[in-house]
């Protein structure tokens, strides 16, 4: 039987470091890195002005991304997904993506406090001024209302980091 790749995906509040960690993991694992932000900004330039816009366009690319990732996994290549897995519904999407092609998965849960995330968001605003409009405490507060921490009952392989590492 052919060896399948492993899909790695991240759960963590806005500012927890998902993108930073995904880039490093892709290097460490010599894996393909797929970034939702890159896909969305390439496919829908200047069209995402609100969280609702993000949700709409994110949903539109999911079927294409799923097929693409499954094709990569099926040739034995690991995939690191810089796409948020911040709700039970989103995590089920990742889990189904893996299980449908008999690939393994790893959810990396960046379990940082709101204060830690807000500090990192402030730092990101300084380093990436183009993100300042979206990287605000108001957006963080709004988005965090939807956040659901992963639970063992979801059947996921969870690796948790508390930010104290």
Automatic annotation (TrEMBL):
It comes from Brevibacillus fulvus. Keywords: Kinase, Transferase. InterPro entries: P-loop_NTPase. One of its GO terms (molecular function) is kinase activity. The lineage of its organism: Bacteria, Bacillati, Bacillota, Bacilli, Bacillales. This is Kinase.
């Amino acid at each position: 039987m052919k060896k399948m790749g492993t899909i790695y995906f991240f759960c963590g509040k806005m500012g927890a470091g998902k993108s930073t960690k995904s880039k490093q993991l892709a290097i460490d694992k010599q894996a393909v890195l797929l970034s939702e932000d890159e896909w969305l900004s390439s496919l829908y330039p200047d069209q995402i002005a609100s969280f609702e816009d993000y949700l709409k366009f994110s949903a539109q690319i999911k079927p294409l991304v799923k097929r693409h990732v499954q094709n990569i996994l099926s040739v034995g290549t690991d995939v690191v997904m810089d796409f948020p897995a911040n709700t039970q519904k989103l995590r089920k999407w990742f889990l189904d993506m893996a299980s449908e092609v008999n690939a393994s998965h790893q959810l990396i849960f960046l379990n940082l406090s709101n204060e830690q995330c807000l500090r990192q968001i402030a730092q990101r605003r300084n380093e990436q001024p183009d993100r300042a409009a979206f990287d605000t405490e108001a957006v963080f507060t709004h988005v965090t209302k939807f956040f659901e921490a992963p639970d063992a009952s979801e059947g996921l392989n969870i690796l948790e980091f508390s930010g104290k590492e």
